[in-house]
Amino acid sequence: MGSLQVFIQRHSVWPLCAVLLALLASLQYRLWQQWQQIEDYEQKIIVQKQENQRLLARNQLIEWDIKDLKQGLEATEERARYDLGMVKEDEILYYFPQ
C-alpha cells in the first residue's frame, strides 16, 4: 500500500477537508471585498474626473478673462460699466429699478 492510502485509512480526512474549505471560503470572501472596494474607487474616479472637467472649464474662462483684461481696454470698460455703474462723458445712464 502507498503511504497516502495508509494515511487515509488511519486518519479521517474530513477535518482536513473542512479546514481547507473554510480557508477557501475565507479567501473568497476577502477577494469579493476587494472587488467591491475596486468598484467603489472606480466610481469615485468617475465623479472626480467630472469635477476636474468642470473646474478646468471654469479655469479656462478665468484665464480668458485675465488675458482680455491685460490686453485691451474693452474688457476693463465693460467691467467698470457692469460692476461700478460707470458711464462715459457724453453718455446718459437710465436706471430702471426692479
From TrEMBL:
<dbReference type="GO" id="GO:0030428">
    <property type="term" value="C:cell septum"/>
</dbReference>
<feature type="topological domain" description="Cytoplasmic">
    <location>
        <begin position="1"/>
        <end position="15"/>
    </location>
</feature>
<keyword id="KW-0132">Cell division</keyword>
<comment type="subunit">
    <text>Part of a complex composed of FtsB, FtsL and FtsQ.</text>
</comment>
<feature type="topological domain" description="Periplasmic">
    <location>
        <begin position="33"/>
        <end position="98"/>
    </location>
</feature>
<keyword id="KW-0997">Cell inner membrane</keyword>
<keyword id="KW-0812">Transmembrane</keyword>
<dbReference type="GO" id="GO:0005886">
    <property type="term" value="C:plasma membrane"/>
</dbReference>
<keyword id="KW-0472">Membrane</keyword>
<dbReference type="InterPro" id="IPR007060">
    <property type="entry name" value="FtsL/DivIC"/>
</dbReference>
<comment type="function">
    <text>Essential cell division protein. May link together the upstream cell division proteins, which are predominantly cytoplasmic, with the downstream cell division proteins, which are predominantly periplasmic.</text>
</comment>
<dbReference type="Pfam" id="PF04977">
    <property type="entry name" value="DivIC"/>
</dbReference>
<keyword id="KW-0131">Cell cycle</keyword>
<dbReference type="GO" id="GO:0043093">
    <property type="term" value="P:FtsZ-dependent cytokinesis"/>
</dbReference>
<comment type="similarity">
    <text>Belongs to the FtsB family.</text>
</comment>
<keyword id="KW-1003">Cell membrane</keyword>
<protein>
    <recommendedName>
        <fullName>Cell division protein FtsB</fullName>
    </recommendedName>
</protein>
<dbReference type="InterPro" id="IPR023081">
    <property type="entry name" value="Cell_div_FtsB"/>
</dbReference>
<keyword id="KW-1133">Transmembrane helix</keyword>
<dbReference type="GO" id="GO:0032153">
    <property type="term" value="C:cell division site"/>
</dbReference>
